[in-house]
Amino acid sequence: MTEVRLKDVAEAAGVSLSTASKALGGGRDVGETVRRSVTKVSEELGYRSRSRRTRADALPLVTLVSDNLESPYTLEVLSGAVHAAKRMGVALISTDLHGAREGTDVMSPAWLRQQVAGGVKGIVVVTSEVSDAQIRWCRQNGLPLILVDPAAPNAEEVVTIGSTNWQGGKQATEHLLALGHRRIGLVRGPEESVPAVERHQGYLTAMQQAGLEVAAGWVQPGLFTPESGRLALLRMLESETPPTAVFATSDAMAIGVLRTAHEVGLAVPGDLSVVGFDDTWFASWSSPALTTVRQPLGSMGQVAVERVLALAGDPGRFAHPFQLETRLVVRESTAPHAL
């Protein structure tokens, strides 16, 4: 049987050789109608590009996308994903939202087409916002997609991996209540972040069940960064009845609270108790060591890779979210409230 060449595809589609190459390679300067026409012809003729032939005997590919590949949170999720990929004989490609070549935004239709053309089995997106249009594109084009700790809620159905954020937020607050604290502040996290909202709700539930009102100024926004934790504590301290304890919905923000407390002369935990969330590596190395809610970040990465490969084999296998258990880790940053 004669091998189908790119030239044959171009002639059958009625386009130039360069246009056919761009259409199949995800080039941006090709219209969608032309792209679909060329793609259809290539499939009908059974055309396989050289890169696809070369990859025939290569490992299956999974792409992991994150908003920040430098944060301790993401690195722990990535470590778990790498472990699962090795165990399952998969090559893992990692990138951030700014990691595509010039002219092609990560998660754009052109970038997604490149993933499909490159033989990627599925995409795992970590703590990054994904639009409903992107979810639909992946579903319509047979590209499995899983979100880890989604940055915003979606109307479209998509498989998510997370932890028991509501329960973790409730645990953190109940720990402070058990120590006698009644004025408990919260550094909330990004307003649209699904995990941040769930942790906030856990905090509110614990306060309500304890019969306590949350005073104005006790709940402050944050961005999962130390600087936002610093600003949140400074605003809390301006209230008429400042908190004696603070629950920050990420370790990074909790570290900002710890440092700022020291700068303004508050002893932790003597004057202010602090709880974080994540239990990333620097929680145990902070001074004092941080009491925090541990979420199994490595396991979340492992499960994401396992599930995206399962979806590649059977797209209708499941659609429900997966939640892994959190647990409170008590260290040195919390103590009974001094009356």
From TrEMBL:
Alphabetized PROSITE patterns for the sequence: HTH_LACI_1, HTH_LACI_2
Cross-referenced Gene3D superfamilies, in alphabetical order? 3.40.50.2300, lambda repressor-like DNA-binding domains (1.10.260.40)
Q: Which SUPFAM superfamilies match?
A: lambda repressor-like DNA-binding domains (SSF47413), Periplasmic binding protein-like I (SSF53822)
Which residues are in coiled coils? none
Domain of life per record: Bacteria
Q: Where is the HTH lacI-type domain?
A: 4-59
Molecular function terms from GO: DNA-binding transcription factor activity; transcription cis-regulatory region binding
Q: Does the keyword Methyltransferase apply?
A: no
The keyword Hydrolase appears for this protein: no
Q: Which UniProt keywords apply?
A: DNA-binding, Transcription, Transcription regulation
Q: Which PANTHER family match?
A: LACI-RELATED TRANSCRIPTIONAL REPRESSOR (PTHR30146), LACTOSE OPERON REPRESSOR (PTHR30146:SF153)
Name of the molecule in the record:
LacI family transcriptional regulator
